[in-house]
Amino acid sequence: MASIRSKIYSRLLRRALREGLLPGGKSGLALARSGENQGPILSMIMGKAQPGATLKIGSMDAEWVGDLKAERTLLYLHGGGYVLGSIDTHRSMVTRLCRFAGIRGLIVDYRLAPENPFPAAIEDAEEAYDFLIEEGVTPENMLLAGDSAGGGLSLALMQKLRAHNKAQPKAAALLSPWTDLTASGLSHKERAERDPMIDMDRMPEAVDWYCPNQDKKNPLISPLFADLTGFPPLFVQVGTEEVLFDDSTRLVENAKKANVEAELQVWQDMPHVHQIAHIFVPEAKAALRDIAGFFKRQAV
Predict the structure, then answer these.
(1) Active site (annotated) includes residue 263
(2) Cis ω on the peptide bond leading into residue 114 (within 30° of 0)?
(3) Domain spanning 4-298: which CATH class is it, in words?
(4) E-assigned strand segments in the chain
(5) Interstrand relation of 104-108 and 60-66 (parallel, antiparallel or unpaired)
(6) Catalytic-role residue among 78, 90, 188, 272
(7) CB 92 within 8 Å of CB 280
(8) pTM, two decimal places
């Protein structure tokens, strides 16, 4: 049974994102960006970690968090539908994950749509990977993670690494990954009213912003349709209340068919990327501990 705090969190999500408080279109996008991680309620739920060590990777802002002396390094790609999200919105969650795992993390502000549509985000993710290699991080000591669109971006990055004959990271954790921009899963319809965060009526707008005039079945856009051969071990978390539920379950099925080690962890009654509410929701903190446990197992 879901905790009282998780029920409060889900209700806040629905009120803010599904009941008309946030307008659609680019005006709504601008408003959402201006309010990201602001205000006492969001800070109470998502946390507000102190900034880490900032740097530039090309034109990208980036930031080191966690144990900066650790050898094992996490490259974290944030979510936000390819149009939202930043270092600021994800710093607290990634910092806690790194602390649980005893590692350091690099968060990057890859370019967002609609100003910078596909494939800009993938190019930036590969640039961040190359930076880590140049800094002396070996693939054996590199971990990869991302939530929602960042999960899909992580899968796209691994495809690019394979295509460019670059070594894969040691392992990857995907938090409610967005893998199917064609919305072909049953959960996109069956859970449309259950999901307190994602409004299926608005999803086509975000998709068009990210990949206008593109084939949405392109594996780099919808990694659900990718060949996953040669990928590292995957750890996938998803909540039962998500319209993107099938994006995770079908991905794990495909990974196993490709002989990739893949573990699916389903969180009962949880919304999309509930981990980000780790300060307020006990299930979110527990989920981060489980990801850290997965990373630690891969070090053996």
Answers:
(1) no
(2) yes
(3) alpha beta
(4) 53-57, 60-66, 73-77, 104-108, 142-147, 171-175, 234-239, 262-267
(5) antiparallel
(6) 272
(7) no
(8) 0.96
User: Any catalytic annotation for residue 148?
Assistant: yes
Q: β-pairing, 104-108 with 142-147?
A: unpaired
How far is Cα 45 from Cα 5, in angstroms, rounded to an integer? 10
Report how far residue 267's alpha carbon sits from residue 62's, in angstroms, rounded to the nearest whole number. 30
What residue has token string 């527990």? 286
Mutual angle of helices 149-163 and 120-134, in 10-degree steps = 60
Distance CA 44, CA 264 (A): 29
Separation between Cα atoms, residue 120 and residue 232, nearest integer Å: 24
φ, ψ for residue 246, nearest 5 deg: -70, -20
**Amino acid sitting at position 217:** K
pLDDT in tens, 174-206: 999 999 999 999 999 999 999 999 999 999 999
Catalytic residue among 188, 242, 248, 274: 242
Sheet holding 262-267, edge to edge: 53-57, 60-66, 104-108, 73-77, 142-147, 171-175, 234-239, 262-267
DSSP codes, 220-288: TT-GGGS--TT---EEEEEETT-TTHHHHHHHHHHHHHTT--EEEEEETT--TTGGGGTTT-HHHHHHH
> Is the link from the previous residue into 119 a cis peptide, with omega within 30 of 0?
yes
Residue pointed to by tokens 């991680």:
37
Catalytic residue among 148, 176, 187, 222: 148
Digit-coded pLDDT (tens) for 49-108: 889 999 999 999 999 999 999 999 999 999 999 999 999 999 999 999 999 999 999 999
Q: Is 272 a catalytic residue?
A: yes
